[in-house]
């Protein structure tokens, strides 16, 4: 008699349970990692505002200003995606948590298993844009 699932299904569930357990054990740092990333992204936003203020009214060639503008515009969707992706984690991963232990632990699992790597990709993407902006500014002694 078949029940619609086999040994492979049990192995998959067992693997998932192991991964969740490992993530829970490692989740004590999830809140600190999240908070550090929030600070980093906040710094990126401030840096971009500073760059905007610096190039406005500067003596940089128009082509350089346009190139910087392209890199700044590429940062906006990355920052928006960061905010959208982390929205549901804010209360659970903020210092002190939401006060709902089960929900906070569930969010830590989700963060550790699915979102941390996605956010690091966004962070790396922002870093590349910032590096390009720095290079453009340094070429003109700004």
Give a short summary of the structure:
By secondary structure, the protein is mostly helical. The protein has helices at residues 7-26, 30-55, 62-86, 90-93, 101-139.
Q: What are the key terms here?
A:
142 residues, mainly alpha, 5 helices, 0% strand, elongated
Uncertain segments: none
The main β sheet shows up as: none
The radius of gyration is: 21 Å
**Helix-strand pattern:** HHHHH
User: Helix count?
Assistant: 5
Total number of β-strand segments? 0
What is the total domain count? 1
Mean pLDDT: 76
Structural class: mainly alpha
Shape: elongated
Task: Tell me the distance between the termini.
Answer: 76 Å
Q: Into which percent range does the helicity of residues fall?
A: over 70%
What percent strand?
under 5%
Description:
The protein is an all-alpha fold and 142 residues long. Helices cover 80% and strands 0% of the residues. Helix 1 crosses helix 5 (101-139), helix 2 runs antiparallel to helix 3 and helix 3 packs antiparallel against helix 5 (101-139). It is elongated. The mean pLDDT is 76.
Topology of this structure?
Layout (H helix, E strand, L loop, with lengths): L6 H20 L3 H26 L6 H25 L3 H4 L7 H39 L3
């Amino acid at each position: 008699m078949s029940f619609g699932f086999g040994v492979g299904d049990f192995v998959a569930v067992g693997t998932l349970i192991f991964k969740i357990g490992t993530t829970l054990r490692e989740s004590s740092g999830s809140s600190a990692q999240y908070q550090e990333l929030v600070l980093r992204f906040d710094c990126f936003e401030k840096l971009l505002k500073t760059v905007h203020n610096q190039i406005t009214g500067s003596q940089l060639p128009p082509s350089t200003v346009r190139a910087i503008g392209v890199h700044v515009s590429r940062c906006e969707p990355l920052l928006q995606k960061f905010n959208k992706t982390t929205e549901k984690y804010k209360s659970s991963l903020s210092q002190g948590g939401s006060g709902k232990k089960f929900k906070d632990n569930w969010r830590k699992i989700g963060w550790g298993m699915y979102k941390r790597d996605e956010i690091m990709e966004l962070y790396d993407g922002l870093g590349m844009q910032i590096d390009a902006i720095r290079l453009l500014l340094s070429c003109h002694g700004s």
